[in-house]
């Protein structure tokens, strides 16, 4: 008979240590594959946004790295991906041109600090209350300026400073490019890049496994090398050489109203774009929903670090986020890993950037700018909500004509005015039985905005008949309307008719 000794029990510690990485991270395979897809989408966009913003290409990669590793690790939205965004390109370019590159770090750092403060004060959820028409108008205006500016880059010429000049002088610049072989080569390469992006969705599924932006830039780079095309390429400085923390002297610029206004514009646009992106990403998957205040803190932490490094501002980017979800990502590990791949590329292969043609990057941004213009939404709003369509269009045109900050303020002012006008809806129903007093019933909100309409209707009542004015249907009666009604009643009674009787008047607000 064989004696068998009992098997000693396995301790919890030894059991945990013997678990495989797959059991500890059950979604690692899906997240790893998704991170590669997002990296391939983000790489050309990070470089393109930086070049279009007038800063070294490496600064776009730094922002992408911080957005992936730092913001990616924080709580908020589990699947959306952050990095440099085309939506801030115009504003960054204007800020660098006006205040200089050292001041960019101060602006981005202050933006991050404001975002952290707003998140700590639980203000993130209130960004969802911003009129959608204002946000879409803002993006449309950015898209128009971005398209116009990048068309100059595609032609190899310098773009004018103002948005209006970019649009007005564009036809002449394109005509002038027809007489230059170098400009024609540059323009043709940019146009071919756009064509690849437009047609990529129609390619076989196996081909489409390569992200469209990467394919477009890769093909353009290959064509420029094979045919020795005389086009400008990205200038490379090296990752560490591009890091420029803002000097202490640059922080003194925060006392100026111009720079403070730019900080407010950065904060408003970056926060709104990130939180609207989070809402869109939530609709794409069935996982945990976004905690808006925590996401705002995460965005602020990322921007604060980008500011300290002198890099571009970051937002959550819907293109990268959608690619992440569609590639099968399950947890935040995918976006963190995409930041790791960007870091490895920037550290090990920075020289590869020098082969990328600038017209190809400009073509990608023209395509991205076109997607920011919601043509279908404008048509839909015009059919059902013309006031909202007007706000969208005016906001976009104001950004082109004036500036980003002023254009957004004009859009917000229009949205508030429209809401106030609609809230002051009032109705007057008149019952005249031919004999006895005329009965008039006011309902709705009697505010000074509708005072002319109220008085016109009341003054049209017969002067030789007594009037009973019923105010029981009013939800609100402001001081201007109350005074005007009392004056009208005195005038109506002054011609010898029976005094106007006002019944069920809303209670006056308590004094003090």
From TrEMBL:
Q: Which intervals carry biased composition (Pro residues)?
A: 1-11
Q: Which UniProt keywords apply?
A: Membrane, Transmembrane, Transmembrane helix
- The UniProt annotation puts the region (Disordered) at 1-20
Which InterPro entries does this UniProt record tie to the protein?
A: SLC26A/SulP_dom, SLC26A/SulP_fam
Query: Do the record's keywords include Membrane?
Result: yes
Which spans are transmembrane here? 32-52, 59-79, 99-121, 133-153, 183-200, 212-234, 254-276, 340-369, 389-417
Give the protein name, as stated in the record: SulP family inorganic anion transporter
What organism is the protein native to? Streptomyces hintoniae
């Amino acid at each position: 008979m064989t004696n068998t000794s009992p098997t000693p029990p396995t301790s919890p510690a030894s059991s945990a240590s013997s678990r495989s990485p797959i059991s500890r991270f059950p979604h690692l395979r899906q997240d790893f594959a998704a991170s590669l897809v997002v990296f391939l989408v983000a790489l050309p966009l990070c470089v393109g946004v930086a070049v279009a913003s007038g800063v070294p290409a490496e600064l776009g990669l730094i922002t992408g790295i911080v957005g992936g590793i730092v913001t990616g690790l924080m709580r908020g939205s589990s699947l959306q991906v952050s990095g440099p965004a085309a939506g801030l390109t115009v504003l960054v370019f204007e800020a660098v041109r006006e205040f200089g590159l050292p001041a960019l770090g101060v602006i981005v750092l202050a933006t991050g600090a404001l975002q952290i403060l707003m998140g700590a004060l639980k203000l993130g959820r209130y960004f969802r209350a911003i009129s959608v028409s204002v946000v879409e108008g803002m993006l449309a205006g950015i898209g128009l300026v971005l398209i116009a500016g990048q068309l100059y880059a595609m032609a190899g010429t310098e773009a004018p400073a103002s948005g209006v000049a970019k649009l007005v002088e564009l036809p002449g610049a394109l005509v002038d490019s027809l007489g230059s072989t170098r400009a024609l080569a540059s323009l043709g390469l940019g146009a071919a890049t756009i064509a690849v992006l437009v047609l990529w969705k129609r390619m076989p599924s196996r081909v489409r496994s390569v992200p469209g932006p990467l394919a477009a830039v890769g093909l353009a780079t290959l064509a420029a090398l094979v045919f020795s095309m005389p086009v400008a390429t990205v200038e490379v400085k090296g990752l560490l050489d591009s890091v420029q923390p803002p000097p202490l002297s640059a922080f003194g610029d925060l006392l100026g109203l111009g720079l403070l206004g730019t900080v407010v514009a950065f904060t408003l646009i970056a926060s709104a774009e990130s939180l609207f992106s989070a809402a869109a990403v939530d609709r794409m998957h069935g996982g945990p929903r976004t905690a808006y205040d925590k996401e705002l803190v995460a965005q602020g932490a990322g921007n604060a670090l980008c500011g300290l490094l002198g890099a571009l501002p970051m937002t959550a980017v819907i293109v990268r986020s959608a690619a992440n979800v569609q590639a099968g990502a399950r947890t935040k590990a995918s976006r963190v890993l995409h930041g790791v791949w960007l870091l490895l590329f920037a550290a090990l292969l920075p020289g590869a950037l020098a082969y990328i043609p600038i017209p190809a990057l400009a073509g990608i941004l023209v395509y991205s700018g076109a997607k920011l213009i919601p043509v279908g939404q404008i048509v839909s709003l015009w059919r059902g909500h013309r006031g909202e369509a007007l706000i969208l269009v005016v906001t976009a045109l104001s950004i082109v004509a004036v500036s980003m900050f002023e254009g957004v303020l004009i859009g917000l002012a229009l949205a508030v005015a429209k809401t106030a006008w609609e809230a002051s809806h009032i109705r007057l129903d008149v019952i005249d039985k031919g004999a006895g007093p005329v009965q008039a019933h006011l309902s709705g909100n009697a505010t000074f905005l509708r005072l002319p309409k109220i008085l016109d209707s009341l003054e049209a009542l017969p002067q030789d008949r007594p009037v009973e004015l019923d105010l029981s249907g009013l939800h609100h009666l402001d001081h201007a309307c109350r005074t005007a009604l009392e004056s009208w009643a005195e005038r109506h009674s002054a011609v010898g008719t029976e005094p106007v009787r006002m019944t069920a008047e809303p209670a006056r607000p308590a004094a003090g």
